[in-house]
Amino acid sequence: MNNEQASSKELLANYQAKLDEEAREAKKNGKLVCWSASVAPPEMCVTMDIAMVYPETHAAGIGARKGAVDMLDVASEKGYSVDNCSYARVNLGYMELLRQYAKTGVKPEKLANSPAADVPLPDLVITCNNICNTLLKWYENIAAELHIPCIVIDVPFNHTMPIPDYSKRYIVKQFEHAITQLEGITGRKFDYDRFLEVQKQTQRSVAQWKRIASFLKYKPSPLNGFDFFNYMALIVCARSRDYAEITFRKFADELEEKVKNGVFAFGDKEKSRVTWEGIAVWPYLSHTFKTLKGAGSLMTGSAYPGMWNLEYTPGDLMTMAEAYTRIYINTCLDNRASELASVAENGKCDGLLLHMNRSCKLMSVLNYQTAEAVKEKLGIPYVSFDGDQTDPGNFAPAQFDTRVQALCEMMKK
Amino acid sequence: MNRIDEIIAQLSHIASHPAEAIAQHKKETGKGAVGIIYVYAPEEIIHASGYLPVGLWGGQKTISKARAYLVPFACSIMQSVMELECEGAYDDLSAVLFSVPCDTLKCMSQMWKGKAPVITFTHPQNRKIAAANDFLAEEYALVRSKLEKILGTTITDEAIEKSIEVYNENRRTMRDFCDAAAEHPEIIDAVTRHAVIKARFFMEKSKHTALVKELVSELRKQPIKAWKGKKVVLTGIMAEPNGLLELFKTNGLAVVADDLAQESRQFRNDVPAGRTPLYRLAKWWQELDGCSLATNPTKPRGQMLIDLTTEHEADGVVVCMMKFCDPEEFDYPIYYAELQQAGIRNTMIEVDLESKSFEQVSTRLQTFAEVLG
Amino acid sequence: MLTLGIDIGSASSKAVLLDNGTTVLAESVVEAGTGTSGRARVISELFEKAHISWSDIALTVATGYGRSSVKEADRQISEITCHARGIVFLRPSVRTVIDIGGQDAKSISLDERGEIKNFFMNDKCAAGTGRFLENMSRILEIGMGEMEKCHFRSTHPAHVSSTCAVFAESEIISLLSNGVERDDIVAGVHQSIAVRACALANRAGVVDDVVMCGGVARDGGVVDAISKNLGRNVYVAPNPQLTGALGAAVLAFEYAKRNGVSHEQ
After folding, report:
1. pLDDT of res. C261
2. pTM for the complete prediction?
3. Rounded Cα distance, B65 and B80, in Å
4. Cβ of B363 and C81 within 8 Å?
5. Partner B contacted by C80 (CB < 8 A)
6. What are A68-92's pLDDT values in tens digits?
């Protein structure tokens, strides 16, 4: 693939496929495969040349391709409650099918019929609770079921800001412990020089990611937030590799061109701008996109991509610890609201659309309080709608449309 | 039997009248109470201040005011806590201590609707490394200094050490009580057993210890009678309200041991030795295992339940599933498979603190009793 | 020896009269459940049919949601145990029971002796229960008795994914307004119920023979959907509504024999 000539869209598709292929090849060649939480630090594993797979992205893909229900049923049969996170249930369902396949040599029907990307079972897992504590339980279960090691990076909830040194020190100690665990698992010594290079690469990827986000400040905007969501796969799965840097640089360059040439996401039909608070409704992504487009409302704000603005000084573990713990949903309400307000302000948003995500308590329970704080600060209205990141049963298109209509009416005033 | 009935009546009264207990403490000592939003907290720090540490576990409430603030799919216990907050039930407390071992608690700590000042702290979840203890000891130091400021008092290391001894004594006594209760299910039924344990959340611990010690001594004087019903072990966050516990009685199910966060998980381990009292309290958390809120990738809960059931010759396990509790729901499929593998009969009932009628629980428990029979 | 089984459910009351633990002498169903006159009426109707009175009955077992209201009963046994026992009576080779009633759905797994090994219930959510089916039949304006016919006419079953009954209504309405054939929607509704029932059944592992009971089993479309989902033959208990009362009557007989009770006492 010629990176120079390929569009960012092509790069995105190619690199995503390449990452899955690398994971499958790794398994075949006896290299290690790691399943990782989406905002867990990949730097140590990438330094050790371990192939990384991301269950949340994998599950989102299954949801988007309308294949979630089968996986959810498998999880149900194992005894998982419908109250639990649907990313976890989809993944644990998929894992169960892979296990059955590995055990019997016969591909279970639900697996054969699934639109899921083909990824191998892991040899180890790494989890981090910077985006929720559910990730601790989910990964505990994967490790227990597969009898594999689990690396935990615990970033304690920041009830008080600024983040105290003793908290960062605890996290740094865990980075060090993770390295020891990896040396034990791989039987190799950790290469600290390589680690520094991987950290630098991560910073380059993050810089380009932020560059993309910066285009949301233009009014009209060349970038639709939904497109931004699509590119998230690479900041999750490849931020410590150059795949992310290359693709994001291309995308940002394309956006720069668009601004120069006056090419905007909604052309001249941009009537209003909204901040989407929460995860996307993957099984109904196109419906949510179309409804907003039909209303001329462009999504130019989301705190979600910002969770991967993992900026730190390569070589300085204390700053790396801080980067991984200060994710906005891992902080007190004041900070959380202030981050969301910044997003809405930078995106020049007229309103907030809150996704009351049945699967995600951490991103739902404080929604109203956060929105009220933003309303007080910026004077912009908000509405909420019921949805779910992967379970199609928890979203009603009719309800979404009604709520968006209401928000548009409120934004007009 | 008389003294046994008296003590049970006294403890039951305290367990169901916390406000009274707090008022009594204030009368006797001039100091008020500090509430603790559970599940695990360094109570000893509060005890060392002379204030009464009080457990806030929600209650049987019809949820209405809370709906304005809390989504309907947050767990049942937090629904009732929010309802009580909105009603002002917690406003007489001098301070409230919040821990945040799950996502819902993180959010609850950020939207306190009561008037008392809130102190939040976080438990580490990478628990078995030494750095976790260092972190938690620092969090506890912060809790101490915030408490000192709010209560206008000093809490010394010596005072905390003394309180740890008082609490360890209570923990030992409670373990003894659970064993004695298992020997006499005809005297200590599910409702009574729970009341004796719950009372400890509203009493100065040494007073509670004294009463329970006496109760245990009286129980041990009684002849052991063969139990005609079945014996069960409970697991979960909590088993309430009394209407639900009554059903164990009705169905001849004796609770011979528990793995409940509100009960045995509080006292099955003592606070161990350590270099400073805060470090000792931190180590207690490190050593706790088998709770859904205490991360451990080896997931020892299943084996612990099997051992508990075998040790007490119980006929089965009743899973008391707190409605909408994510951590508990995640643990279930893993230990369920282990129980099935070990041939231990089990069933699940839902704990919904808002419920006033328990038909569904009744059906399940009755069927379970019939199945065990 | 005559024994009586009474099952007072949420929506209906059932009674079965059994002779010597082997022969069903009479049955009765009244579509009025707990808290109504259903209890009294089902008993009087049964007595009239069989020309008997209370003095002829050796032992009575009550079951169902309203079992505690049957003061005349000698014993109360849970409906899970009773349904299981009733089905074992009708089909001794049963190992998996799927019971979908008005307000709940359950699966029961049995061992070779017909004893309950395990059971799983959904009793807190309308999705997957008779209530859901009723709601859908109302929105589609198709009588409950017609649903089965529609199911078998369907050529392209629609996909009904909502877990919440309210959202499912919205989903059906949307399908209707998009011109999806009613028959296909019915098949989709049946599939939705079947998926939930099978999830419960698979919790314990499904073993042949699989038998369905409960009011919803009268809808052959649901039975068909469950059978396809499990990839197995699914038998329907004859008179699926009555298996609870039947099992209660059988258990009454067994208890009476064990304790030397006879109708003279």
Report:
1. 77
2. 0.93
3. 10
4. no
5. yes
6. 999 999 999 999 999 999 999 999 9
Question: Are A79 and C163 a contacting pair at CB < 8 A?
Answer: no
Nearest-Cα residue of chain B relative to residue A372:
B69
Contacts of residue C232, defined as CB under 8 A and 6 or more positions apart, other chains included, come to C206, C208, C210
The fourth-level CATH superfamily of domain C2-83+242-258 is ATPase, nucleotide binding domain (3.30.420.40)
Residue extents of the structural domains in chain A = 32-190
Q: In the structure, what pLDDT confidence band is assigned to residue A1 with cuts at 50, 70 and 90?
A: low
Fold matches, C2-83+242-258 and C93-236: yes
From C63's Cα to the closest Cα of chain B, the distance in A is: 10
Find, among B350, B344, B354, B353, the residue nearest to B364 by Cα: B350
Mean pLDDT, residues A227-237: 94
- Residues of chain B positioned with their CB less than 8 A from the CB of C78: 363, 366-367, 370
* Cβ-based interface (< 8 Å): residues of B facing C: 347, 350, 359-360, 363-364, 366-367, 370-371
CA distance B137 to chain A (A): 10
State how far residue C6 is from chain B, nearest Cα, in angstroms. Answer: 16
Residues C207-264: pLDDT tens digits?
A: 999 999 988 999 999 999 999 999 999 999 888 889 999 999 999 999 999 888 765 5
Q: Residue type for A352, please? A: L
Give B72-98 pLDDT, tens digit per residue. Answer: 999 999 999 999 999 999 999 999 999
Interatomic CA distance for residues B351 and B75, integer angstroms: 10
ipTM, interface predicted TM-score of the complex: 0.96
Correct CATH for A32-190 of 3.40.50.300, 3.90.1200.10, 3.40.50.11890, 1.25.40.10: 3.40.50.11890
Helix (H, G, I), strand (E, B) or coil at B343: coil
pLDDT in tens, B40-54: 999 999 999 999 999
Contact B84, B28 (CB under 8 A): no
B297 to chain A, closest Cα gap in Å:
5
Q: Which residues of C161-190 are buried (b: 16+ CB within 10 A; e: fewer)?
A: bbbbbebbbbbbeebbeeebbbbbbbbbbb
User: How many contacts, defined by CB atoms under 8 Å, are there between A and B?
Assistant: 139
Q: Which CATH superfamily is domain C93-236 in?
A: ATPase, nucleotide binding domain (3.30.420.40)
Q: Does A87 touch chain B (CB under 8 A)?
A: no
Cross-chain CB nearest to B329 (options A84, A356, A366): A84
Q: What does each C-alpha distance from C205 to A120, A164, C82, C232 come to in angstroms?
A: 26, 51, 21, 13
Residue B50 C-alpha, separation from nearest chain A C-alpha, in angstroms: 26
Q: Is C163–A77 a contact, with Cβ atoms under 8 angstroms apart?
A: no
Residues of chain A in contact with residue B121, where contact means CB-CB under 8 angstroms, are: 159
Q: Please state the domain extents for chain C.
A: 2-83+242-258, 93-236
Please provide the distance, in angstroms rounded to a whole number, between the alpha carbons at the two ends of chain A: 50
pLDDT, position C108: 94
Task: Please report, to the nearest 10 degrees, the dihedral formed by the alpha carbons of residues B232, B236, B238, B240 taken in order.
Answer: -60
Chain B contact for C123, CB < 8 A?
yes
pLDDT tens figures, A125-150: 999 999 999 999 999 999 999 999 99
